[in-house]
């Protein structure tokens, strides 16, 4: 068993909320509450969940863009928190990110040449003419022309801007990339192009990815393994096929059933959960999903479930994981 | 009952900007029957929102201008009626809900305030009766504790709840047609499920026709009776929903369906439609899809294909189905 | 060299000409520009345009009313007022431009640092700015100029100091907005340091707002500088500064109205010119109106 590229152990991040006259800390927004995950070399871990579940925060924590309250992040076995200055800088260029919003993910006032090239300069990897050469190479690898270097973001379409974002992330030759909703703002046809590009690049270079999305079908296409998040916790982790064929957690099952399928022959009720996603400020007691869970019992209200490996590499945090659910049929 | 509720003929809309003239809609035909849910699907920039807004003459002039065509609603051409009549139609006979309910709801007034305003404006009732109507509608959209909801402000409600309030508000006057412009796009998938179920249920019961606009083919498949596919300002295909998904005729529709990652099957790599959506200032000549079409042939780049019926109720605008 | 520059800046060049075109269509912009143009022209070519030497004393000619020989009349030492106004334009504009450059430069950097780094530093800097802002600008400028000693350069420094918080406040606001954009997070993730981000990301994105603020402040600057000279703290005689001329001309206002009036008029027109141009520019650069 080789060392995983990324190992996140019990990550915790609470955001304080200030209130009252003097601005004391009134409550905490429990964005990420004891999240653990592992990503191996060359694999894509999909992180899926609805808004407010904390998946973007997890991404930021792993990238060291936010400070951890508790927990450890290991990059190839080395605890990132123990590093300072120069050492941290070296790691930084190995962890890159591609963002969601093609509008604000690129500086509107910066030439593409600079946008894609600066990671080389600020990390002291290359300067001047060599930067230009590398920029040209990476641009063609993501499917753009050399000439595009001399343009500004607004001259490009959403899909092209995503390619530029990907180029910027890849130019330093990182090992691990976080994709935060990279296709959510794109049209279907463009989304397909970008997803293909991402998977192709992984095949060619052996990158490891954390792919964050709320879209289950996109996650299914892009990932090898998938982790499902709800209200700051990971409720289920499994290899792709296992998750979709027999989801163990009631929330995962609800998610899968809610996705409207582009097949009018398979119509079914999309209303599987009642109520709204509760706020991460007032988290329910015990199992956080219990107020909406069709399988809820007394123990769910009282105790938080422990994460257990129910099948090989299939982990779930639930008091009543079910292995055969009547609604879920294998197709 | 055979006469369609809404009949759009030859509608053309252009936007006059500094960059040039944007031909947003070009000779668009659309028919909506009573009691049906018509889906309008297309990607960004295809003109579906422009189409929706044109029905109620909500296009800002300048820079937009309705260049020609007619929109018959129950026999009247909406494009030509007086402003007074238009005001009567809006909200009463034709209602509209939008994607982001935060912008449709005024943040400084309570929900109750706004709902009451709409009801009193369109129906001749006093405020007590109006309140009853509001509570009733909120119950119809399955809001827990409707009385309480009336006293809340929009920001106190979640996205799903706000959208349900909008639905309640817009359906309170029992319109004949509801235009829904991407109403669930900004919602989480489980919330979307709730809202769609409520919407579907309600419009069937009230007999309201719906023009449902979305870029999400899954939602369209689950909700609609008939579907129109738009590309670059034109409608390229229209068919009953089962026919469209089972046997799409236009290459664009086919490409769209292939490009969606599926929860059920493995698709690797995803089939891609080459190229990007064209700008509408200088749209491609002939069939607007031809530069990206893998089945294009001789006439496609200079002859505009007619929108014709190739099978029962299944219309396409494509030379592949032309008169050979 | 040039072709590389053109390639890299092709879009900026295009935008620049587009802005010029829009300005050309806007009446306020044109009017303001004409006024500014006249003032700048006068300032640049005062040496060629002025009919007389501005400091040449000719006591026989003292306090003559406007005539064909002296279009704006003469002052108490017989100096031609028109010539003095022309040379005065040089001084006023020089003050304006230098103040804007100093205040804009310092203020922008201070504001960007404050906005981007946030928390304690932001608090500290903004409180200092608040203190400066709490003084009426003229009073503060007076105090500084008096402390530094009456001279043109000291006046410039004093006024610049007073204007710094305005730029700082505005740039801080923009920095706060830009900070939240995803490309900043991407830059941090790529290993860029805060200073680099401030210089290469934050400041360029605030640029157009700074330009607009500068044009609007220019008018105020000239006014304050004139006021300083009015009370004797700015330029010293015999330098022909508009404010100083108004100050001395006060004594003669009753009978020799032209003395204070013409310089005053020029102050007025310059300030108005910059203001309406600045307003038009702000409207035109607003991205929503642009399309």
Provide a descriptive summary of the structure in words.
- The complex is a heterotrimer of chains A (331), B (324) and C (291).
- Chain A has 331 residues and is of the alpha/beta class.
- Chain A has a domain at 6-94 and 176-183 and 211-317: P-loop containing nucleotide triphosphate hydrolases (Rossmann fold, 3-Layer(aba) Sandwich).
- Helices cover 30% and strands 24% of the residues of chain A.
- Chain A has an eight-stranded mixed beta sheet, sandwiched between helices. In chain A, strands 2-1-4-5 form a four-stranded antiparallel beta sheet.
- In chain A, helix 3 (112-122) packs across helix 4 and helix 3 runs parallel beside helix 5.
- By secondary structure, chain B is α/β, with parallel strands linked by helices.
- Chain B has helices at residues 48-55, 83-89, 101-104, 111-122, 127-140, 146-150, 159-171, 189-206, 217-223, 241-246, 251-259; strands at 6-17, 20-32, 37-41, 64-73, 76-77, 94-97, 177-181, 209-214, 226-231, 234-240, 307-311, 314-317.
- The model of chain B has no long low-confidence stretch (mean pLDDT 87).
- Chain C is an all-alpha fold and 291 residues long.
- The mean pLDDT of chain C is 84.
- Chains in contact: A-B, A-C, B-C.
- At the A-B interface, helix 5, helix 6, helix 7 and helix 9 of A face helix 8, helix 9, helix 10 and helix 11 of B.
Can you summarize this structure?
The complex is a heterotrimer of chains A (331), B (324) and C (291). Chain A is 30% helix and 24% strand.
The pLDDT mean of chain B sits at 87
CATH topology term of the domain at 6-94 and 176-183 and 211-317 in chain A: Rossmann fold
CATH H-level homologous superfamily name of the largest domain in chain B: P-loop containing nucleotide triphosphate hydrolases
Instruction: Detail the poorly predicted runs of chain B.
Output: none
Report the sheet-strand fraction of chain B. Answer: 15-25%
Major beta-sheet overview of chain B:
8 strands, mixed
Q: Give the N-to-C terminal Cα separation of chain B.
A: 36 Å
Overall mean pLDDT of chain A stands at 85
Which pair of chains forms the biggest interface, and how many residues does each contribute?
Answer: A-B, 48 and 46 residues
* Helix-strand pattern of chain B: EEEHEEHEHHHHHEHEHEEHHEE
- Overall radius of gyration of chain B: 21 Å
Alpha-beta content class of chain A: alpha/beta
Number of strands of chain A: 12
By CATH, the architecture of the largest domain in chain B is named: 3-Layer(aba) Sandwich
| Highest-level CATH class of the largest domain in chain B | Alpha Beta
- The poorly predicted ranges of chain A are 325-331
Number of helices of chain A: 10
Strand order of the largest sheet of chain A: 6-7-8-3-9-10-12-11
Strand content of chain A: 15-25%
> Quick one: biggest sheet of chain A?
8 strands, mixed
The ordered H/E elements of chain A are: EEEHEEHEHHHEHEHEEHHHEE
């Amino acid at each position: 068993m080789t060392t995983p590229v990324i190992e996140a152990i019990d990550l915790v991040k609470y955001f304080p909320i200030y209130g009252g006259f003097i601005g004391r800390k009134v409550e905490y927004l429990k964005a990420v509450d004891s999240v653990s995950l592992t990503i191996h070399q060359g694999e894509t871990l999909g992180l899926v969940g609805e808004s407010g579940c904390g998946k973007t925060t997890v991404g930021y924590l792993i990238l060291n863009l936010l400070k951890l309250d508790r927990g450890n992040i290991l990059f190839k076995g080395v605890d990132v928190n123990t590093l300072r200055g120069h050492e941290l800088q070296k790691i930084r260029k190995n962890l890159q990110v591609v963002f969601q919003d093609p509008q604000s993910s690129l500086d509107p006032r910066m030439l593409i040449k600079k946008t894609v090239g600066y990671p080389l300069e600020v990390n002291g990897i290359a300067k001047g003419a060599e930067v230009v050469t590398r920029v040209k190479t990476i641009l063609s690898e993501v499917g753009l022309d050399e000439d595009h270097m001399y343009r500004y973001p607004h001259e490009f379409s959403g899909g092209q801007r995503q390619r530029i974002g990907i180029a910027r992330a890849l130019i330093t030759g990182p090992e691990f990339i976080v994709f935060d909703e990279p296709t959510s703002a794109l049209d279907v046809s463009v989304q397909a192009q970008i997803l293909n590009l991402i998977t192709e690049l992984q095949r060619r270079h052996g990158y490891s990815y954390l792919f964050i999305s709320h879209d289950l079908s996109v996650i299914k296409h892009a990932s090898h393994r998938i982790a499902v998040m709800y209200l700051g916790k990971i409720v289920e982790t499994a290899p792709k096929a296992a998750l979709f064929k027999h989801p163990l957690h009631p929330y995962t099952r609800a998610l899968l059933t809610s996705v409207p399928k582009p097949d009018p022959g398979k119509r079914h009720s999309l209303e599987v959960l009642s109520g709204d996603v509760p706020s991460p400020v007032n988290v329910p007691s015990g199992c956080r999903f219990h107020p909406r869970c069709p399988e809820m019992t007394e123990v769910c209200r009282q105790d938080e479930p422990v994460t257990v490996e129910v099948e090989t590499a299939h982990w779930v945090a639930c008091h009543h994981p079910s292995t055969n659910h009547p609604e879920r049929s294998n197709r | 009952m055979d006469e369609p509720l809404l009949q759009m003929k030859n509608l053309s809309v252009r936007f006059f900007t500094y960059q040039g003239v944007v031909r947003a809609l070009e000779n668009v035909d659309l028919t909506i029957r009573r009691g049906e849910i018509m889906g309008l699907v297309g990607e960004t920039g295809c003109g579906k929102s422009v189409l929706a807004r044109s029905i109620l003459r909500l296009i800002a002039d300048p820079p937009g201008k309705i260049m020609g065509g007619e929109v018959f609603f129950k026999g009247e051409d909406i494009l030509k009626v007086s402003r007074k009549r238009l005001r009567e139609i809006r909200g009463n006979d034709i209602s509209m809900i939008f994607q982001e309910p935060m912008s449709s709801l005024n943040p400084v007034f309570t929900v109750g305030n706004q709902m009451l305003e709409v009801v009193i404006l369109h129906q001749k009732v006093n405020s007590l009766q109006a309140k009853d109507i509001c509570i009733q509608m909120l119950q119809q959209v399955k809001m827990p504790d409707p009385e309480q909801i009336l006293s809340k402000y929009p920001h106190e409600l979640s996205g799903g709840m706000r959208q349900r309030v909008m639905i309640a508000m817009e359906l309170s006057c029992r319109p004949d047609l509801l235009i829904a412009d991407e109403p669930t796009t900004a919602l989480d998938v489980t919330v979307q499920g709730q809202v769609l179920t409520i919407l579907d249920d309600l419009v069937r019961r009230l007999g309201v026709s719906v023009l449902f606009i979305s870029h999400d083919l899954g939602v369209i498949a689950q909700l609609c009776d008939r579907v129109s596919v738009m590309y670059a300002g034109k409608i390229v295909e229209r068919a009953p929903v089962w026919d469209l998904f089972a046997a799409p005729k236009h290459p664009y529709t086919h490409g769209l369906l292939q490009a969606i990652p599926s929860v059920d099957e493995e698709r690797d790599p995803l089939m891609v439609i080459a190229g990007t959506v064209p700008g509408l200032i200088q749209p491609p000549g002939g069939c607007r899809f031809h530069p990206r079409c893998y089945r294009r042939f001789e006439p496609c780049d200079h002859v505009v294909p007619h929108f014709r019926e190739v099978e029962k109720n299944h219309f396409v605008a494509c030379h592949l189905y032309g008169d050979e | 060299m040039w072709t590389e520059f053109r390639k890299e800046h092709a879009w900026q060049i295009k935008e620049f000409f587009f802005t010029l075109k829009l300005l050309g269509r806007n009446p306020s912009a044109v009017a303001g520009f004409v006024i500014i143009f006249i003032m700048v022209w006068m300032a640049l070519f005062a040496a060629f345009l002025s009919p007389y030497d501005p400091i040449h004393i000719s006591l026989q000619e003292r306090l003559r009313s406007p005539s064909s020989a002296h279009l704006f009349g003469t002052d108490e030492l017989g100096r031609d007022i028109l010539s003095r106004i022309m040379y005065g334009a040089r001084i006023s504009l020089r003050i304006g431009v230098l103040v804007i450059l100093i205040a804009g430069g310092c203020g922008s950097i201070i504001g960007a640092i404050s906005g981007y780094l946030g928390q304690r530093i932001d608090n500290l800097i903004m409180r200092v700015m608040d203190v400066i802002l709490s003084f009426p600008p003229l009073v503060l400028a007076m105090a500084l100029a008096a402390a530094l000693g009456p001279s043109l350069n000291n006046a410039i420094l004093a006024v610049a100091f007073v204007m710094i918080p305005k730029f700082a406040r505005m740039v801080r606001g923009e920095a706060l907005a830009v900070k939240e954009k995803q490309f900043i997070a991407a830059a941090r993730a790529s290993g860029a340091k805060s200073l680099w981000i401030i210089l290469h990301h934050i400041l360029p994105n605030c640029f157009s707002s700074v330009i607009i603020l500068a044009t609007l402040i220019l008018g105020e600057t000239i006014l304050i500088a004139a006021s300083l000279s009015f009370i004797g703290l700015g330029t010293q005689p015999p330098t022909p500064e508009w404010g100083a001329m108004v100050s001395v001309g006060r004594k003669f206002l009753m009978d020799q109205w032209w003395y204070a009036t013409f310089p005053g008029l020029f102050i007025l027109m310059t300030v108005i010119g910059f203001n309406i141009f600045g307003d038009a520019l702000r409207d035109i650069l607003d991205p929503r109106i642009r399309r």
